[in-house]
Structure formats: structure tokens, C-alpha cells
Design a protein that fits this description.
Elements: E1 3-15, E2 28-34, E3 37-40, E4 51-60, E5 71-79, E6 86-95, E7 100-101, E8 108-111, E9 124-135, H1 157-226
Parallel strand pairs: 7-9
Antiparallel strand pairs: 1-4, 1-9, 2-3, 2-5, 5-6, 8-9
Length: 242
């Protein structure tokens, strides 16, 4: 019998996660994708610092010689109650070239990354990642030794993927719409302010013109009143004067 290469991800713990349950906490689980295989941990209920106690997720490595060219995707999710809804808490991308063999593995800490510019992410996750060789006969489920728990979502995968995509995109779209609305409101306020500033001098100028006209009119009336009137005296006409 030959040997089969296995890839193991031991999920240790996470720290300082974003609250997502609306009550200041989260119920987190970790999901790992590798080479079209997907496994997840149990859910750590109501904590921003979940501990999984080195829960192990195992994957087949079909082509060990190509492992250094492959990528391991680690996702942290908040599980909605009731499931299967979930919210994004962060991700980590690990290249196969950094994966070691069993025996030289250490606990590694990774800062969680955001998915897009609209994601609000914080915290980190601790993992142990390594490979080992297993006898091929164990592949048939022969048991013995150490049994590694693996959770596969196959029957519900298509339906759940669609629902997850909608749930994941909803906050981002809502955030984007809110930002766009805020930008439009700001632009509208700026335009209104510019219009008001433009109209303000005109409004100020109108009373000044009116006041000036009233003063001029008043001065003209006063001048007309004070102007001397030429008096014409009627003298008796006499032929002797001629």
C-alpha cells in the first residue's frame, strides 16, 4: 500500500473579533477551502475571543509536488441564529510554500483581512498548518489511531452558497448606498450654500438701493421746499410814466 499526503489545519483561537449579533458579540466559526475541498469548525457561541482548542480539519493533497503553488483560504464567519445565515468576520490567504511538515509546525498568528474596501474587520487568528503522510488503507475509513473530524457541506452547498452571497453582499450594498446618499446630500448642501451666498449680496444690495433712493427723494423734496419764490408786485399803471 502507498501513502497519501494530508494537509491539516488546526484552528487554535481568534482574538478581538468584530461584534455581529447586534448585542455586542459574535458566534464565530472557521471555514477552510483548499483544492475544491471545504471543512469548518464548530461554532464558538457568544464571544469575541473564541477558542477552538486545536480543532483539526484535514484535506487530501492530490499532488504533493504542486503544493507550493496552491493557496489555502481561511474564512471566519459569524453564524446567525437560526442558521444557515452568516456574516463575514475576516479572512486569511496562505500560500502552500509556507506549509511545513508535521513535527516542525508552530502556532502561527495571522491578522484577519477584509474582503473589500467596505468591510470593517479587526482581530487575528491562530493556526497550526502542516502535512503528514497517511497509509492509503486508512482512506477507506479503517479508523485506528487518531481520527480527524471533517465536516463537509455537499447536499446543501449550492443552496447555501446563494444565500450566503446575498447575505454577504447586502451589508456592503447598503453601506455603499448610504455613502452615496451622504455624498449626494453633501453636494446638495454645498450647492444650496453656494446659491444662498450668491443671493445674499443681491438681497443686501436691494435695501441699500431703496434706502439711497428714499434719501435722494427726500433731499429733492427738501430742496424744492427751501427754494425762494419770486414775488411779482402789481404797481398801478400811469400814462405819465410814458
Amino acid at each position: 500500500m502507498g501513502k497519501v499526503r494530508k494537509l491539516v489545519v488546526e484552528v487554535v483561537a481568534a482574538h478581538n473579533l468584530m461584534p455581529k449579533d447586534g448585542q455586542g458579540s459574535s458566534s464565530a466559526f472557521v471555514e477552510v477551502d483548499y483544492d475544491n475541498q471545504r471543512s469548518r469548525t464548530r461554532t464558538a457561541e457568544k464571544t469575541l475571543n473564541p477558542v477552538w482548542n486545536n480543532e483539526r480539519l484535514v484535506f487530501d493533497v492530490p499532488n504533493p509536488m504542486n503544493l507550493h503553488n496552491q493557496v489555502l483560504q481561511i474564512y471566519v464567519w459569524h453564524e446567525e441564529n437560526p442558521p444557515p445565515g452568516r456574516k463575514f468576520l475576516g479572512k486569511v490567504k496562505i500560500h502552500g510554500s509556507t506549509i511545513v511538515k508535521q513535527g516542525v509546525d508552530d502556532v502561527l498568528k495571522f491578522n484577519l483581512e477584509r474582503r473589500s474596501i467596505f468591510s470593517y474587520i479587526k482581530g487575528d487568528i491562530e493556526l497550526k498548518i502542516y502535512t503528514f503522510d497517511e497509509e492509503e488503507k486508512k482512506k477507506s475509513g479503517g479508523g485506528g489511531g487518531e481520527k480527524i473530524q471533517q465536516i463537509e457541506w455537499k447536499e446543501k452547498e449550492v443552496k447555501q452558497e446563494k444565500q450566503e452571497t446575498k447575505e454577504e453582499e447586502k451589508p456592503e450594498k447598503q453601506e455603499k448606498a448610504e455613502k452615496q446618499e451622504a455624498t449626494e446630500k453633501q453636494e446638495k448642501a454645498e450647492k444650496q450654500e453656494a446659491t444662498e451666498n450668491q443671493e445674499k449680496p443681491e438681497k443686501q444690495e436691494a435695501p441699500e438701493k431703496q434706502e439711497k433712493a428714499e434719501k435722494q427723494e427726500k433731499a429733492e423734496k427738501q430742496e424744492a421746499t427751501e427754494k425762494p419764490v419770486l414775488e411779482v408786485k402789481d404797481e398801478p399803471f400811469s400814462f405819465m410814466d410814458h
